[in-house]
């Protein structure tokens, strides 16, 4: 197949490297000519994905995009979708969103926003799950889910095309639930990092994450996802990867705050952690939907109220006893 990937960041380049190993023709759209020349000169994306050679992949700028391709993948933050994609006219079988996040103002996921921008009738899917860019680029094993409503034949073709000996692709029709899982898990990964920073043990972290999954599923279902989705790769899988990965910025934020640093200062100095930005909005949503979210409440109190992390943990441990 011919794949066009819009976005030459870490994830866009990692997916491009994977698809090239699968034998596909891959073109990656860079933001501008300077970024394109830099990658072509270095043979890799030294800034975002150092050490990964990007051989056999075509790099272009937006003005060089051809009018037809088999599949378009969007590896951009959702807030630039309209500016970057709004004027594009591409004939394609499917659009696949690679971004994670949640637009609080409209309660929309990235793919839902993409649908509003693209021509009516466009097939918009998402590819989601526990997959870190560096590991995918290196060809280490992982499993992901291709989610959305498209004809069975097209879903099967895409599943087979993206799958390889190092990437196992499942399919699901619950696109909203899958995207919600990718957005919700970040705040709970901050809580997991707090466990690491406090050095309170594996039992504590396992217990917290089990209850975090329950909380995540409750809120996710109220926001339109299916319960079973949160117990799959895009729910518990993504939560575990982000909560245990040494590379996880959300986990790092929680760990460093637990060791005495201030969240707002860490973020101001460049620690980009989606859980910091999302936790307040998610807690407001939980209150609005009347969903109990005790872990989210403590995450917000620690990150924004500078509550002592150990006190926050004791607040959770001291809640009224109940059935699981």
Walk me through the structure.
This protein is 50% helix and 12% strand. The protein is α/β, with parallel strands linked by helices and 324 residues long. The chain has 2 domains: 2-173, Rossmann fold, CATH 3.40.50; 176-317, N-(1-d-carboxylethyl)-l-norvaline Dehydrogenase, domain 2 (Orthogonal Bundle). The chain has an 8-stranded mixed sheet with strand order 3-2-1-4-5-6-7-8, sandwiched between helices. The longest helix has 24 residues, at 175-198.
Strand order of the largest sheet: 3-2-1-4-5-6-7-8
Cα gyration radius (Å): 20 Å
Instruction: Report the sheet-strand fraction.
Output: 5-15%
Helix content: 40-55%
Distance between the termini: 48 Å
Uncertain runs are: none
- Report the total helices: 14
Question: What is the average per-residue confidence, as pLDDT, rounded to a whole number?
Answer: 97
Order of helices and strands: EHEHEEHEHEHEHEHHHHHHHH
CATH class membership of the largest domain: Alpha Beta
As for the CATH topology of the largest domain, it is: Rossmann fold
Structural class: alpha/beta
Largest sheet: 8 strands, mixed
CATH superfamily of the largest domain: NAD(P)-binding Rossmann-like Domain
Strands, total number: 8
Tell me the CATH architecture of the largest domain. Answer: 3-Layer(aba) Sandwich
Shape: globular
Number of domains: 2
How do the helices and strands line up, and which of them pair or pack?
Blueprint (H helix, E strand, L loop, with lengths): L1 E5 L3 H12 L3 E5 L3 H10 L15 E3 L10 E4 L6 H5 L8 E4 L12 H8 L6 E5 L4 H6 L3 E6 L4 H11 L4 E6 L2 H24 L3 H21 L10 H12 L4 H10 L4 H6 L5 H15 L5 H12 L3 H9 L7
Parallel strand pairs: 1-2, 1-4, 2-3, 4-5, 5-6, 7-8
Antiparallel strand pairs: 6-7
Helix pairs in contact: 7-8, 7-9, 7-10, 7-12, 7-13, 8-9, 12-13, 13-14
């Amino acid at each position: 197949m011919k794949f066009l990937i819009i976005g030459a960041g870490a994830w866009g380049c990692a997916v491009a490297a994977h698809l090239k190993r699968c034998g596909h023709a891959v073109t990656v759209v860079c933001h501008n000519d300077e970024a394109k020349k830099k990658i072509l000169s270095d043979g890799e994306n030294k800034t975002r994905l150092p050490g990964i050679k990007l051989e056999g992949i075509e790099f272009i700028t937006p003005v060089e995009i051809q009018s037809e391709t088999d599949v378009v993948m969007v590896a951009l933050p959702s807030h630039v979708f309209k500016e970057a994609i709004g004027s594009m006219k591409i004939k394609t079988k499917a659009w696949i969103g690679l971004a994670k996040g949640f637009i609080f103002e409209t309660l929309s996921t990235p793919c839902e926003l993409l649908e509003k921008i693209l021509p009516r009738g466009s097939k918009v899917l998402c590819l989601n799950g526990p997959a870190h860019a560096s590991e995918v680029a290196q060809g280490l094993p992982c499993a992901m889910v291709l989610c959305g409503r498209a004809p069975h034949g097209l879903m099967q073709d895409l599943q087979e095309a993206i799958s390889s000996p190092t990437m196992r692709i499942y399919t699901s029709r619950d696109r909203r639930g899958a995207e919600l899982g990718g957005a919700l898990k970040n705040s709970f990964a901050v809580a997991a990092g707090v466990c690491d920073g406090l050095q309170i043990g594996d039992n504590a972290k396992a217990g917290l994450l089990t209850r975090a999954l329950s909380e995540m599923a409750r809120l996710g279902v109220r926001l339109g996802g299916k319960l079973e989705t949160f117990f799959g790769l895009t729910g518990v899988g993504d939560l575990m990867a982000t909560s245990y990965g040494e590379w996880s910025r959300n986990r790092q934020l929680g760990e460093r705050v637990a060791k005495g640093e201030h969240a707002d200062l860490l973020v101001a100095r460049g620690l980009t952690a989606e859980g910091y930005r999302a936790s307040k909005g998610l807690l407001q949503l939980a209150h609005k939907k009347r969903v109990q979210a005790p872990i989210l409440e403590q995450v917000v109190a620690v990150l924004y109220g500078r509550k002592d992390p150990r006190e926050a943990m004791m607040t959770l441990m001291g809640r009224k006893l109940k059935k699981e």
